[in-house]
Amino acid sequence: MLGSMGFHRRAGGRWLRILLATACGFLVAVLALAVILALRFQPVAHDYFVSTLERRYKSDVELGSLQISVLPAIHATGDNLVLWFNGRHDVPPMVRIRRFTLDASLLNFFRNPKHIGSLRLEGLQIHLPPRPAQPPSAASTEPRPPAVVRSAATAAFILDEVIADGTTVEITPKDPSKNPLMFDIQKLSLRTIGMGLPMTFQAELNNPKPPGFIHCEGQFGPWDAARPVDTAISGKYTFRNADLSVFKGISGNLASDGTFTGQLDRMEVAGTTDIPDFALTSGIHPMALHTDFQATVDGTDGNTILHPVRARLGKSAFEVAGAIERGALETRKTILLDAKTVTGSPARLEDFLRLSVKSAEPPMTGGIRFDTKVKLPPGDTPVIDRLQLDGTFGLNGVKFTSADVQGKIASLSHHAQGDPNDHDSNVTAEFQGSFHLHNGQLGLPDLGFTVPGARVNIQGSYILRSGVLDFRGTAKLDATVSQMTTGLKSKMLKLVDPLFRRDGAGTVIPIVISGTRGQPSFRLDIGRVFR
C-alpha cells in the first residue's frame, strides 16, 4: 500500500511538471506572438495615426517616432509631431508637439469610436491661423453644417482626458501688420463630455501685459477643422494681480471676474473689474475704480469693442463706450472712447481732480456732469500729456478748498448783490461750458461761472501740471458799482455807475483771471472798460 502511494505521488509530480512546462511554453508563445504583432503593428499604427490626424485636422502631418505596446493595455509614446494646416508650409505649423504619451484599455480602444483614456502632451505649441478673407456675399451664402455634426463625423477617436501643461498659443491676427497674440499656459487640462460635444477645460496662465494671473474654465469645441478660429468657446475667468504700472502714466492693481462665450474671433465677455488703487502718475492720490462691463473681444488679435460700461470712480458713476485695439496703451494704437456721467447717479468733481493733482486736497469740490470724446494717441510720454478730450460739462454746488480762494468767491457774490459787509464764505458756484484738452493744456472757450448776484463768462486755458490760469471775460453783476461799497466811496462812485451799467445788469466788468489754481488773481481789465 505504501508503494502504491509513492507511485501516485511520483505520477502526480510528473503531471504537474508537464502542466507547468506546457503553461510556460504557451505564455512564451503568446508573448512572442505579441512581440511579433507589436513589431509588425508599429508601421501600420504609425500610418494610421498620421492619416487619421490628416483627415480630422485638414493638415499635413509629420511624426518623428511612435512606440506602441498592447499588453496588458495600449500604451504609446511619440515625438516630434507636427501639423501643417491646409498643407501650408509657408507659415508656422498649426501644432507642434515635442513628445506625447497616450494610454487606453484594449476594450475601449477597439470600441467604435475608439476611446483614448489619457493623453499627455509635452512641449505643445499651437499656432492658429487667421480666418480666411472672404467677400461678404460668399460668407453669407456659403452652406455649412453645424460644427457639432461636422466634428462628430470626422472623429476617429475620442480623448477622455488631455493634460498639456506648459502649452504656448500663438494667434495670428487678420491684420498682417500686427504682432501675433501670445499666451503661455502653465496648466491646461481637457476632458470629454460625450461624442460630438465640446471638451471641458481648465487653464492657468500668466498674462503678459499687464502681467497678472488668469484662471479660466469652461468648454471648448467641437474643433472646427475647416476654420479653427470658428471653434466655439465658453466659460468663466478670474484675473488677479494685474500690474497696470507697465503702461506709462498710470498705476494700480487690477482684479477682474467674468464670463465669455462665442468663437475665438468673436467672444462676448461680461464681468467686473476692480482697481482699489488706480492712479495717474501726475497725481499722488490713488482712487478706487470699479466697472461693470460687456464687451466683444476678438481673441485673434485682442481688439475690444466696449458696449456701455458702467464705471465708478470713488463715489462717482459714469459710462464709457468705444473700441480699444490691442497695444493701444503701448506705442502703436489710438484709443477712441465716449464717456459721460449717468443721469440720476451722483458724480463728484473732487473724485476726478484727485487723480491729476499733487496737492493734499483737490482745488474744488462739487457735483459734476460731462459728455466727452476721449482720444489717447500712441506714444511713450505719460498718459496725462497724450490724453485728448473734447466735450461739455457742468459743475454744481462748487466750493474751493483754499480758504483764500473761497473767500474771494464769497466776497464777489456779496459785493455783486450789493451787500459788501457780508463776510459769510458759505457760497457755492455753478460752472458750465465746453472744453478741449490737448498736450496737458485744458482750453475752455465758453466757460460760464455763476454765483449769487454774478454771472461770469470767460475764455482761456488751464495747464494741468503747473496749475497756471489764463482767462479773460466779462462779469455781470446785479448791483451797481456804487452799491458794491459803502460810505463816501459809494457816493462818489455813483458818478461812474452809468459807465458800467449795460445789458440789463447793474454792472458789467471786463476781468482777467491769472495766477495758479492755488493762488488765483482776479483783476479788472481797465483797457476794455472804455472800449
Description:
- By secondary structure, this protein is α+β, with helices and mostly antiparallel strands.
- It is built from ten helices and 28 strands.
- The longest helix has 56 residues.
- The chain is rod-shaped and about 120 Å long.
Strand order of the largest sheet: 3-5-8-10-9-6
- Total number of β-strand segments? 28
The coarse silhouette is rod-shaped
| SS class | alpha+beta
Mean pLDDT score = 80
End-to-end gap = 153 Å
Low-confidence stretches: 21-37, 135-155
- Beta-strand content: over 45%
Helical run tally:
10
List keywords for this structure.
alpha+beta; 6-stranded mixed beta barrel
Quick synopsis:
By secondary structure, this protein is α+β, with helices and mostly antiparallel strands. It has ten helices and 28 strands.
Structural topology:
Layout: H1 2-57, E1 59-69, E2 74-85, E3 95-104, H2 106-109, E4 114-116, E5 118-122, E6 125-128, H3 136-141, H4 147-153, E7 157-159, E8 161-163, E9 167-171, E10 181-192, E11 199-207, E12 212-220, E13 232-243, E14 250-251, E15 253-263, E16 266-280, E17 287-297, E18 304-313, E19 316-324, E20 335-341, H5 349-356, E21 364-376, H6 383-386, E22 388-400, H7 403-416, E23 429-438, E24 441-451, E25 454-463, E26 469-477, H8 487-493, H9 497-500, E27 507-515, E28 520-524, H10 526-529
Parallel strand pairs: 4-7, 5-8, 6-9
Antiparallel strand pairs: 1-2, 2-3, 3-5, 3-6, 8-10, 9-10, 10-11, 11-12, 12-13, 13-15, 14-16, 15-16, 16-17, 17-18, 18-19, 19-20, 20-21, 21-22, 22-23, 23-24, 24-25, 25-26, 26-27, 27-28
